[in-house]
Amino acid sequence: MDYRTHLTDETAKRVSRAIGATHIGVLFEHVSTAFWPSFSGVAVVIGLTLLGVHEVLPLGWRIAIWGMVALALAGLFVLGVWRLRWPSRAIAMSRVDATLRGQPLQALRDTPVSGASDPPSRAIWAAHMARMSTRVAAARPVAPEPMMAAKDPYGLRLVALTVLGMGLVFGSIDHAKTVAMTSSTDQIAAGPTWEGWVKPPAFTGKPTLYLADLGAGFEAPQGSQVTVRLYGDGASDDLTLRETVSGIGDGAAPDFKVAQSGDIEIDGPTGQLWSVGLIPDAPPTAELIGDMTRAASGEARQSYRLSDDFGVTKAVMAFERDVAAVTRHYGFALTPEPRPDLVIDVILPQTGSRTEIEGMFAQNVSEHPFSGLPVMMSLRAYDQTGQVSTDAIGEGILPGRRFFDPLAAAIIDVRRELLWNRSNATRAARVLRAVSYQPDETVGDGDVTRRLRAVISLIEDRVDPMSDERVDQVAKELWEIATLLEDGDLKEALERLRRAQERLQQAMRDGASDEEIARLMQELREATQDYIAQLAEQQGDQESEAAQGETQQMSADQLQQLMDRIQELMEQGRMAEAQQMMDMLNQLLENMRVTQDPNGQGGEGNPSMQGMQDMLRDQQELNDDTFSDLQNQQDQGPQGEEGEGQDRQGSDAQGQGEDGASDMGALSERQGALRRELERQRGNVPNGENAEGIGEALDGAGRAMDDAEQALRENDLGGALDRQAQALEALREGMRQLGDQLSQNQAQDQDGQQGQSGGTTGGEERRDPLGRFAGNTGQAGSDEAMTEGEDVYRRAEELLDEIRRRSAEQQRPDDERDYLNRLLDRF
């Protein structure tokens, strides 16, 4: 029974179309199964023909092979016809029916076996037919399934398609024209012909061009290699090559390079003319962006921009000493010794395009003789052909590591002057002896003292003049002594931290993988934790460490969050933001070391403590000025040793003596003013258990200042420096005991407040300038978890903006504005 009798016309047409499309697919299956060997053979023959494989064979062999190939293809076609079985429409119908629930097509063709005369049975059968008719409406074509893998287990059809693809991509239709021709001697006998190729330089990334496939004109990059081959009897007479693109005139040279626009012509019976346009290779460009800056780690940093039409291959940053910009005093008054420019290769990105590069040059050159001096810098870029950009010029002070220890800074100054001119050796030895006078008070470390004395002996060695090797040896030793004084026991931890930072920054520039970033971040975390732990060990007594434990823990949490953020940004590919966060981390670590209270005491913001800090700073500045005058005095040499009749006792020497006396008078007056200020500050010292100790320390500082003032009046700079050092030590001792006293008073105040009802009495007096109440520890601040949450960085930025806004309001009290400015200086 026909299934269409139960369907509407529209449903019947839809089902018929589905069966017809499926029938075509079944036919494709049968044809592909039967003829895939012959199809594969044809694909192989076409691919090999386009590649010109037949041209390597003599004509006789070629005819024989073509005959065998034709017979093989015919046999495969006959085999396919024999294997082909034409599929019936019933097969297609059964495939469509199999995709429907309950096989409704088959059900619609069924007839009832019994019950045809029974009305209930007829009703049930009619309902069944209606249900099947509804299901048939969902009929859709079924995709063919050739199942070729089972028919071709060795994948020969795929090999054939690969050969055909290679012929289409790399072959030429011209090879197909030579099927019945020879390619070598037989072809030559047939008459003159030619072949030619244009191969652009590899760095352009452009493909090789086949001259026969090109029209009357084309463009080629500068430096492209042109190769032309002429074939046939008397080819040199029948075919002539002319070209004007090489710039060396017309000729018959078969190989030449494109250096300019022009023509290439093969003149003869089968010749052709091409007009060639030159794609020039422009030189690269280099640009410096902004000024050179110094990172917290001491790196010199300079942003730059490079560009080239085909890609920059190399960039070099050079630094030349700017002698004209150097202040010519002290050891720099001498003419500098010639030194080669500092030339450093710029690290370019290893991945991505190099046609446009924006990056940052970062290099730590703290130990170089130019460090800390004015320099002229130039950036130069190169491309693949060796073309060089115009130098991008800038100027500035070549940054280097900062030394905060006074003795270490003085040693670095001596080192810089010695590298300026080795004739400063005598001066360097005198200064080193002066700064290391009474080493127990100025140096302290016995190993440093011995090394300083060894360096002085090396400088004063008169057996041979100061050779280059000895200058380098002295410079290296002075650097190591200065870093040892600056870092102390932190040196190894600090070096490990710097190495970890450098490796991570290199990974940023090279676009490292997420796994490499995670490994380097873990290395940085471990180095940072080790550095903080070592820093905590240098914090004075146990009470100070206990008092600062909570603050240090909070700092460690903040650093951990900062490093997590750096890793997140790097994994997201936001390297510029990650570099900014790295700079912030470096600055935090440096500030942690530089601004660390040497005795770990509180009291910041207290009038008495603030006054002591100001006095300590002023006394240190006075020491520096005294030391500078001592250097000038040593440069002038001893006066009066060669008799009164010499020129140095003339009017010029007398004038210098009067200036020196005037300077001594100004220094002694400053020292006297500091002594009087010390007496005034004595009245601000709070009462307590340490009051007597504080008084003794300040008395000692006052006596040392008196002695220093008297020494300055007598022009005894060496003695004045000794007394000033004693005054500084006594002031530091007084500040330490004052910090202890303030901490005790603060604890007592807190205990008293906790005994009051609710602990809120006097709350307004315990607010800090930002309006915050004292926390549970008694310190002005907040007990809230300020470093938790995803929005901590935005909150920190908002707080910093608020501090800046309040510090700029002139109507606020001076104490409050001073406190806010100190917060800005710290962060």
UniProtKB/TrEMBL annotation:
Location of the region described as Disordered in the Swiss-Prot/TrEMBL record: 628-719, 731-827
Low complexity composition bias: residue spans: 629-639, 739-754
Ranges annotated as biased composition (Basic and acidic residues): 672-682, 704-716, 791-827
Listed transmembrane segments: 34-53, 59-82, 154-173
Keywords: Coiled coil, Membrane, Transmembrane, Transmembrane helix
Pfam name, any one: DUF4175
Chain coiled-coil ranges: 487-595
Protein name: Methyl-accepting chemotaxis protein
InterPro entries given in the database record: CHP02302_TM
Organism: Celeribacter marinus
